[in-house]
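Researcher: I'm preparing a figure for a lab meeting and need a structural model of a single chain. I don't have an experimental structure, so a prediction will have to do for now. The sequence is pasted below. Please return the structure as tokens so I can convert it later.
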Amino acid sequence: MRKNLGAKPLMYPQPVLIIATYDQEGKADAMNAAWGGIADYKQVALYLSKGHKTMQNILERGAFTVSMADAKHVIEADYFGVVSANKNPDKFVKSGLHVSKSELVDAPMIDELPLTMECKMITYDEDSELLLGEIVNVSADENILDEDGKIDLDKFHPICFDPMNSVYVTLGKKVGNAFKDGLKLK
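Model: Understood. Here is the structure written out token by token.
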């Protein structure tokens, strides 16, 4: 038997995305955004209100980074979501995290978050609040890579947002092989 839950933004997993930008003075800013994902092979889609300082920075500079939050940095990631840079412009100081300037886009990379997409703004639609960005590069800390240079989730521990229970969870264990297991039914 099923139970109707109503119209809710329930999609699992929802990655915890930390969007980082520079403001007019070159000060780093970051926000937590749960509503976003891959839109195409080299594109990311994010739903961000124009009222966010981060979105204002993106419109001005045309660039941003997207880092996946990990279990090690839950407190900092949540902080970037519960505090507005419009009211607290020194979010990085309080978080204790550090940034380095991307070599490829005009945006900061958060040093402690091990996986980052460096992006250029493609379009922003104010009505739908949809931001599309071109993924210029993805950089990963070597500590989360396996011996073949691929991301190892057992080393990374990315977190996801559970919107029904308002909690963060880590991704679980491997249960199958993509593009392979389904061939058994062919």
